[in-house]
Amino acid sequence: MNEKQSAHGLSQAQLDSFWMPYTGNRQFKQDPRIIVSAEGNYYTDADGRKIFDGLSGLWTCGAGHSRPEITEAVSKQIKQLDYSPSFQFGHPKAFELAHKITEFMPEGLNRVFFTGSGSESVETALKIARAYWRKKGMASKTRFIGRAKGYHGVNFGGLSVGGISANRTLYGQGIDAIHMPHTMIEENLFSVGMPQKGAYIADELESLIAIHDASNIAAVIVEPLAGSAGVIPPPQGYLKRLREICDKHNILLIFDEVITAFGRMGSKTGAEAFGVIPDLMTTAKQLTNGTVPMGAVIAKQEIYDTFMAEGGPEYMMEIPHGYTYSAHPVACAAALATLNLLQEDKLIERVNSISPHFQKLIHSLKGSQYVSDIRDYGLTGALTIAPAPGEPALRPYQIAMKCWEKGFYVRYGGDTIQLGLPFTTELNEIDNVINAVGDSINELS
Ligand code: PLP
C-alpha cells in the first residue's frame, strides 16, 4: 500500500468489489479519489484536503453541501415516517411538495408525478406521452424524436432518445427513436451565453416529420440546455421554433430539465430562462439538493385531465405506472426544505448576480492551448478540448486530474471539461476554479 491508499483505509478487495458507474474502474482503483465529507462549497478527501466542488456534486447540490435546513428536515422525517407507500395511500408531504413544485413551474404545468431519479423521470415522461395519445384515440403515435448529443439518462427509453453515441453503442436495440441534429455549429464557437445563430436548425424537425409523419410521432424530447454533452445552450429562437413545429403537428414537447430546473439557469426552470413552455418537464438532481434521490415529471393539466377523463370507473387507476420510491417521505422532506431554501436565501437571484463574473472568467480561457470552444449559461460552463491523436477523451481526463491535485473537482466528459458551480459560490472562488482549470491546461504537454 502506498501512502495515499493507507489514508483512505480501504483494502484492495473492498475497492475491487464496487463496480463504479461511469468511471474508469481500473485507473480509479490504482489511485482512488475518495471523498469523506462535505460542507458548503467544499469536499474533504481521505487525505484531509479541502476540494472545491466545481460541479455541485453532479449538478445536484446548488445550495451547497450539508445545509442544516435540509439535513434537519430529513432526520426529523426519517424518525417520524421512514417510509409509506404512494400506491393507493398517501402522506401529507407528497401533496405539499407537489403543490410547492408548481410554484417553480411555468404557467400551465401543474400536475406532478414523482420518481426516484432523472432516468426514471425520463421513462415516465415517455410513457405518459405514448399513453396520452392512446387515450386520445391516436395509438399509432409511438415514435420519439430526440437530438444528437442529448442525454436523457441510462434506461432503455432515455438511452434510445439520447444522442451521445458512447452511451448507446454497447446496448443494442432500444425503443423507436430518431434524432434531430445538435446545435453546435462553427459560427457559434466561443459564443457568450446563448448563441445568436442556429434557430434554423429546428427546421430539421419539419424534415423528420415529413419522412415519418406526425401520425406516428408521440413526442420530441430535448434538454433546453444540453448538460452532459458539455453545456450546449440553445441558439436564440431555436426552442420557440421547436415549440411551433410541435404545435403545428400535434406532437408533445418534453423538456428534460434534470440539470436546468430549480435555479441553475438563473431562473426557476430552463423553460422560464428561454421563454418556451413544454407539455411535460422532467426534473431531479437540484430538487432535493442531491441529498436524497428523487425526480419529478410535471405535466400540463390537459394531459392529466385526459387520463382522468379516460380512466374508467373511479376506483380504477388511470395510469399503471409508479415506483416503490415515488414520493418517498424522506425525499419529500428533503425537497420541501430545498425549495424553501432556494426561495428564502434568494439563491436563484444569486445565480443571476454571480453568473456574469463566471461568464467573463470562463471566456478568458479563450486562447489557451487546445481550447477549441467555450460555452456558458447561468452557472454552467464547458470547454471543448482538442483531441490528442487517437485519444479524444485523454486531455480532459488529464486536466480534471490536475485540477483534483490542486484541490478542485471539475467534470471531464467526452472531449469536454464541465463546470456547474454551487449557487453559493463566492466571486473569489470563481477566480480560483477558473485559474486552476487554466493552469491545468497550460501544464499539459
Ligand atoms: N436527463 C438529464 C438531462 C440528465 O442530465 C441526467 C443526468 O445527468 C439524467 C436525465 C439522468 O438522471 P439520473 O442520473 O438521476 O438517472
Provide the fold topology:
Elements: H1 3-8, H2 12-17, H3 25-30, E1 35-39, E2 42-45, E3 50-53, H4 56-59, H5 68-80, H6 92-103, E4 109-115, H7 118-135, E5 143-147, H8 156-161, H9 165-168, E6 177-180, H10 204-212, E7 217-222, H11 238-249, E8 252-256, H12 270-274, E9 280-283, E10 295-300, H13 301-309, H14 329-344, H15 347-363, E11 371-377, E12 380-385, H16 394-406, E13 408-409, E14 411-413, E15 416-420, H17 427-443
Helix pairs in contact: 5-14, 6-14, 15-17, 16-17
Bound molecules: pyridoxal-5'-phosphate.
Fill in the keyword field for this structure.
binds pyridoxal-5'-phosphate, Aspartate Aminotransferase, domain 2, Aspartate aminotransferase family protein, seven-stranded mixed sheet, Aspartate Aminotransferase, domain 1, four-stranded mixed sheet, single chain, 2 domains, alpha/beta, disordered N terminus, 445 residues
